[in-house]
Amino acid sequence: MKKFILIASFAVILISLLSFIEITPTSAEYADLTLNRYAEQAGMPPVVFPHWFHRIRFKCKVCHEDIFLMRQGSNDVNMQKIIQGEYCGKCHNGKIAWAPIYCDRCHSGPSSIVIPEARGFVK
Ligand code: HEC
Ligand code: HEC
Ligand code: HEC
After folding, report:
1. Which of 52, 68, 88, 106 to mutate to test the pocket of ligand 1 (most atoms within 8 A of CB)?
2. Averaged pLDDT, groups of 10, the chain, 123 residues long
3. Which domains does the chain have, with CATH numbers?
């Protein structure tokens, strides 16, 4: 009887673990997101946005949907807007977070494009 209870409770644990795993395949939510509407075409490596890094620091509401629509690729972001304080530039303005002068921190996607020296600014 004891053995049966043991096996039964083990099965319950296993099933709950499995159902947990079943929820997680939408893990794109947790992973880094690539923004590449314009970057590569304009000669810059794609932008890798570390979603999780930001999510643990800010409530979803901070960004969604005041700053970013909640769908990958749905936001029309470019550098001019960022420098003017929109999108990433709401925070990456040298006050809340570092200024958008460190190109390679955001443009870090896999690419054969090398960020030109002249664009690299001072590290
Ligand atoms: C610092 C800003 C920021 C915060 C905070 C943030 N997100 Fe996002 N989120 C983004 C950006 C940027 C994108 C990508 C938008 C794009 O590609 O145009 C995104 C995309 C998404 C997407 C779409 C992913 C896809 O694959 O299409 C979902 C879902 C999402 N966020 C959910 C959340 C949830 C839930 C939270 C809170 C736990 C959260 N986000 C917090 C900035 C943020
Ligand atoms: C709500 C504010 C906010 C917004 C919006 C935001 N960031 Fe950030 N981001 C931060 C803060 C704060 C940090 C941490 C800065 C530090 O460590 O000094 C950070 C750090 C980062 C880092 C470095 C992560 C690491 O591992 O150190 C990258 C890359 C980055 N952001 C990219 C982006 C991009 C790309 C966007 C727009 C798509 C964006 N961020 C929008 C607040 C923001
Ligand atoms: C805070 C993050 C961040 C930093 C830092 C950053 N960028 Fe960007 N950049 C982006 C995002 C987001 C986009 C839009 C990505 C897309 O969808 O193509 C973008 C797009 C671009 C584009 C294509 C669109 C346009 O505006 O022409 C160019 C070119 C570009 N960046 C150059 C640079 C250069 C040069 C630097 C350094 C001086 C830099 N970026 C620094 C986030 C950043």
Report:
1. 68
2. 62 52 44 94 96 96 97 96 98 97 95 72 45
3. 27-120 (3.90.10.10)
